[in-house]
Batch of 3 targets.
Target 1
Amino acid sequence: MLSILTGVISEGMIEKGNSHKEEMRFQEERKKQAFMKKLRDHFLESDIDGDGQMTLDEFGKSLPQMMHMFEVEGFQFGIDDLTMVFGLVDFDHGGTVELEEFLQGMTSFTANVGDLPLIVLRLQSNIFLHLNQLETKVETKLDGFDARCMASEDRLQSIEEKIAMLVSMQGPR
């Protein structure tokens, strides 16, 4: 009887612990979503010219407010750290980042170990997306090149035929 009672109590505690873990995970996710909304709003406010891109200059001007936002969330990052993130998400090194690049960079930068599988999956997805886009562009360029080569070959053949006809019209010398 004592064993059965102990088993029931243990099972109840395990179930309650699992439920607590799940609730903590949901709270963490809600907290991350709220922080991402703050970062989105920060980006929109920092985009002074409203072109949908944040320049390095706009980023620098809004850096103190962003550092404060991170501190409130419990992150202690320096100016160099955040500037490095800007540089990392500015893939073309043009000095600007778009909203989604900014949010993905900040999400990855503030991620915890539990987020790594999702980040790796997102990275893999982005790599395949960009590889597919690159493949499509290369195929389009090659198709255009092939068409130009075929046209050149046709013109060359036409010229050769005209030369052969002229030579045959002149007859033997």
Target 2
Amino acid sequence: MIHTYAIPLRARFRRLDARDGMLLRGEAGVGEFSPFWDYDDAEAASWLRAALESAHLGWPTPRRGRVPVNVTIPAVGPARAAELVRASGGCRTAKVKVAEPGESLEEELNRVAAVRDALGPGGKIRVDANGGWDVETAITHLRALDRAAGGLEYAEQPCLPVPDLARVRRAVSVPVAADESIRRASDPLEVARQDAADIMVVKVQPLGGVRAALDIIEQVGLPAVVSSALESSVGIAAGVALAAALPELPFACGLATINLFTTDTAARPLVPEGGSLPVLPAGALTLRPDLERTAADAATTERWNDRLARVRRLLVEEGIQP
């Protein structure tokens, strides 16, 4: 089975209004192949490796039965931000998107303050800039956001270049997490060599699967936060499998993103209950019986079929039989 989905988002996220991708069924279950469209075929090959692992190999034995998660707050107004926290299924950690193009520091501060108020004093707040700042802007904004949050848990990817990340880390008291500097880097170990981060954010598809991600986490040697790549529940299940397989899980994971979708591909979407997600055995996720309701239009489906064929050829050249 190959199914191409296209699902509108409830709010603009990562400059997207909708999310699309492919589901591939194999003997072990269903895998998701959903690289963003600004990724070339070579980069998308890792995403296909991850989908094939989920579909044909399954996942390592879990060490825990549930995984704590954070609620993700897009670049929305304060009222909507507080509403998302309250509707998060009991999440006690919030990741707030910042560094949105055209947005002011005041707007960021108001959003973070609203999230703090909705979480209460015991909740944790982290911010994610997706590499959108330069060094000086990052330092200025993080100091102000740290005060507005009453203390940030960490700041995710304030700048893109690893040397800049290291400079920001030395200049602020907020712990720094590396995301793009690991998952989109030709050398994911450079972050550790330059002492540029306190935490690493890992995503199953960009790193080539659960087993590949576990290997990179071990090599980098930093505490890991497993996050989604804005996937349907099929991709989220692989992220939960990675978090469940880690020897230690010191932070809530960024896997509660299904609430950003208007619908989902699973019969029972992976949304938080009590601030956590269940760990599912490989092959246990059931697709919704009316899966055609999530189907992409003909043009989008053809575009994905062409992309899948190109990326498959790359894997064959590597000696992998997809």
Target 3
Amino acid sequence: MSIFESLDTLRATPIPDQAEARARKEGFRGHAIDKNCAAFGEAMVNLNDHGIAGENYYHSTRNPPYWRRIEGSIPDLLARSAIALKLAGINLVLHEGGLELFVFDAWRPRAVQVYFHDVWMPQEVHKRNPSLSDEELERAVETHWAAPSTNADSPAPHATGGAVDLTLRFIGGERLWMGSIFDDVTDLAYRDHFERDDVPAMAFSDEEARANRRLLHWIMSDAGFVGHPDEWWHFSYGDQLWAKLSGVSAARYGEAKP
């Protein structure tokens, strides 16, 4: 089978219903972390230095819906060394088909997490639905933005260096259409949005988004990553979300210290 046939097979393979994953990820911040494993102290590296394309979305001004640099952001795309190796391996496969990964975000400073969790997201959710109770508002916010934490036993995924936000693009060129902008915090961003039976008759654009999401999902899954069920772009390896969704007894990564 040629690489093109392999990629076409992934584009045609549906993403499973994410309802089970949504239920299973509840409480993942309380999952155990193995602080004695060899990976716990794994070094952080800059993904760009390992040939992986990307631009830190929060340090850019080309970042709708924000259109401005977020205070506290950094230009670097930092992740654990094992993440860099895995992404580089995925690129070896994608390159044969003229594609590559493009990273939006990896390790995230706490100031950025605090801003979006405590300020930006609550304001946006309240603006769209001012009738929500405080509890409902918090639940809506944390669907997409994990609470920042100083608790070493409960780090936000992006604080571990094991979480990456990314997409696919033609090598050195345009990104593939995924059906929404990055950081769209509605159900349009749900990983299985275009797989649902209740989605209206799909336009060509929707069918293309579905195929591209499938390709991204499966090529990352085959490398050992797990995807956030509510975000087509978010993948984890080694953190508590990965451990909880994979059925692993303990996470490999705690909070990273770049």
